[in-house]
Amino acid sequence: MKAIVIEQYGDKDQLKEMEVPNPVPDEHQVVVKLKATSINPIDWKLRAGYLKDMMDWEFPIILGWDAAGIITEVGSAVTEWKIGDKVFARPETTRFGTYAEYTLVDDHLLAPLPPGISYQEAASVPLAGLTAWQALFDHGQLKAGEKVLIHAGAGGVGSLAIQLAKNAQAHVITTASAQNAEFLKSLGADEVIDYKATNFAEVLSDIDLVFDTMGGDIQKDSFKVLKRDTGRLISIVGQPDEEIASEMNITAKSIWLQPDGKQLQEFGQLMEQRKVNAIVGTEIPFSEAGLRQAHELSETHHAKGKIVITFED
User: Could you tell me the CA-to-CA distances from 228 to 128, 144, 199, 252, 305 in Å, in that order?
Assistant: First the structure.
């Protein structure tokens, strides 16, 4: 099969097309013929070598950890899925990812493609959607009526987090550029702060939950807006300052996504009901040049919604 791989760490030019063996499923795995995948920051961070201490894999590495497609083969112990099923998934993080015509997925990580949802929409959701879900609810314990600040609302994770938080009846505040304000309000944001014109830490207070997707000074300033004793700061980009958290008597932690097929099925139901909509900002055909272009766009940090890679039949 055709795959886009890296054989060493480096810039986007390390992404190269290669013929690799078709995957063979273990007893609790299926083979998915991909119709779409999507780009996440972990892809280019791993490509550049930033995560090599955490994921010390042999080359070649196939990046990509979002899948939407059709099951073409099932393992001997798979009972809930069959050949021909349309599915989407966030596979386990291995060196055999989804920048390929076929990929392996453990059967418990699969979710059915929601009726009326395209492969492109479905592929944009698993990693970003589960990240938002777990940050807000599993770790952030967000409840109806609470105030949540979601940084970088126009991005892949932020745009889904806004919708999830609004669906949970929270008061949703987000940071973004002014040009994205109306878009984010259409997703459910109650307040949009133009980060270029306003320092959020000077205008907000008594926030119950901050979802930090930025890190650095933005993470540090986020402590200033949280409620003492009950506030929560959940980050996906680095461990928050434990001394400040202790002094304020609040929860502040960095999380790492756990693939979860059951959660993804629940997310799919929200998509089917159009309570949460996938935000596909850019579609690029699967090719060496296409993946390089997609990485370059993702690395700008200014892509709107998700960058989706599509596969021809």
Answer: 29, 19, 20, 12, 33
Kindly give, in sequence order, each residue whose CB lies less than 8 Å from that of residue 40, ignoring residues fewer than 6 positions away. Answer: 65, 66, 127, 128, 156, 298
φ, ψ for residue 293, nearest 5 deg = -60, -40
Closest CA to 176 of 145, 149, 207: 149
Picking from 83, 156, 127, 118, the residue whose alpha carbon sits closest to that of residue 263 is 127
Residues 6 or more apart in contact with residue 158 via CB below 8 angstroms: 132, 150, 151, 152, 174, 176, 211, 213
Closest to 201 in 3D by CA, of 253, 239, 248, 149:
149
Q: What pLDDT score was predicted for residue 304?
A: 87
Whole-angstrom Cα distance, residue 26 to residue 268?
26
Cα-trace Rg, the chain: 19
pTM across the whole model:
0.96
Tell me the two tokens of residue 87: 């599915």
Q: How far apart are CA 151 and CA 270, in angstroms?
A: 23
pLDDT of residue 303: 86
Q: Please give the structure tokens belonging to residue 36.
A: 């779409």
Residue 19 in 3-state DSSP?
strand
Q: What is the pLDDT of residue 82?
A: 98
H/E stretch holding 268 reads helix 261-272
Read off the amino acid at residue 206: D
